[in-house]
Amino acid sequence: MINILPFPNERKHTFAFLNYARACSPVFIDTDVDMTKILNLREGSATLAQTKLSIITYFIYAAARVLSKYPEANSSLLGGLLPKLAQSDTVSAKFALDKKIGEQRVVLPGLIPHANQISLQGIQNTIDYYKLNDFDNIQEYAALKKLQKLPLFLAELIFGLILADLKRRRSRLGTFSVSSLGHKSINSFFSVGGTTLTFGLGQIQSQAVVQKEEIKIAPVMRLSMTFDHRVIDGAMAADILSDIRESLEKFCE
After folding, report:
1. Residue 163 — pLDDT band, cuts 50, 70, 90?
2. What is the pLDDT of residues 40-64, one digit of tens each?
3. Distance between CA 37 and CA 78 in Å, rounded?
4. CB atoms within 10 A of CB 61
5. Can you name the residues that pair with 33 across neighbouring β-strands?
6. Cα separation, 23 vs 3, whole angstroms
7. H/E element, 56
8. Residue 203: what are its φ and ψ, rounded to 5°?
9. Domains plus CATH for the chain?
10. CA 239 remoteness from chain centre
11. Model confidence, pTM
12. DSSP 8-state secondary structure symbol assigned to residue 7
């Protein structure tokens, strides 16, 4: 028996977003990151402040500061006959959340404006705000709630019109995106977050690595990156990913 069901209202924002994101010309690269220092810092923060910062908090802190040095990548593109680029003078991070709206499990966005200027604890506080509150109690989802009540074709049309405004787009999508599936046995994954750069954080697992010509066991995380080839090229993308890797391995607040 097959049940034919209407498309869930709770997933209309995902439907509209994915149709919008099709315009991206994605290229995929990845690298491995030695997370020894980050894990040690997490344990230290838990001891001193009685709170453990999340891996994604450290990543957003490091990536935002790296991206502030690459204005070309910290840009939004409006395609069409007369393409335009909007370069932002600040870095805003969008991160993905696994939440429920009623009984429907969905991915929802959280936004950290000016992420390159905020402390680790400030980033963690924003993440906790989105994670710990119910969908109905998060005021930033007011527009999304209205979108979910519209017919699907109209929701998609309005979503596209909103994002056609490059200045408004930054306040909806940020200037880079990040998702983490590291809580499961996922090594790497690639997605398109509607921004020029989208990062994926995989699980941290013990691996043999060579350090100073010696083989050691270290906690290693696969870090993936999708970049929009319409905006930047592979050489810059490789520089950015390498710089973020180095920033994590030599993390300094």
Report:
1. confident
2. 999 887 666 667 899 999 999 999 9
3. 39
4. 25
5. 221
6. 33
7. helix 55-67
8. -70, 155
9. 27-138+173-248 (3.30.559.10)
10. 19
11. 0.92
12. P
